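[job 4417] fold queue: 2 targets
>>> target A
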Amino acid sequence: MMITVCKGKIHRAVVTEAELHYEGSLTVDQDLMDLAGMRPYEQVSVVNVNNGARFETYLIVGKRGSGTICLNGAAARLGMKGDKVIIITYGQLEESSLPADYQPKVVFVDENNHPKKP
């Protein structure tokens, strides 16, 4: 049986911009995407910690090291600059092939969206 599991997560990132008049998506710093195992145009779930909104969109690459987390298009209605969000990707695999010690790639960030040292 196929199951869906969390593949990667950027935890409690701070929204740096919200651009309503932009074709919908979520722009994320390339460094954060790499650390979380995320790819351009990959589907993501976004959870806004401040207002409880949850939505799905896709990723657009932001400048490396910039800390950019930008809600674009309709997503800009679901959050604002300064909100904390959790960005999650999922993967599907055979349940029997899931290692007992499986862990998704989780990136914790500071107030500037730079990775915290483990």
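>>> target B
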Amino acid sequence: MKITVVVVGLLIVLAVLAAWYGQRWIRMRRGGGVSVALRWRPDNARSSWHLGLGRYEGDEFVWYRVWSLRTGPDRVFQRESMQIADRRDPSGSEAYAVPEGSTVLRCESETQEAIEIAMGPGALTGFLSWLESAPPGRRLPRAS
């Protein structure tokens, strides 16, 4: 009897979590989210890629990790401080950890740690347009 109650309780908790997560994912996609893989501390050999959804909210690029129970974004990047330091294709096993056809951008900031963002061609075009549409007078160094 006690085992049945525990199992039913556990199933209810799992159903609530699945419903919440599904609703979060749908809401993010409808809000204009794009599939993006992110890696922070890219110079660390142990850093790995994390899949998520990125959204543009004014002067901020917010990133939500796919497998997260957070209600808010996992990372927030300010347009005014982001600079593209390098651009490359995924190498080796990276190609399996990032969205298909991705380009990897290394972004550096004076206020945050260096990150690498991997995104497909459509998302890349949108990201570069967003980054370059900074207010007049802002200098945007570009990687060659």
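[job 4417] complete. Note on B: The chain has a mean pLDDT of 81.
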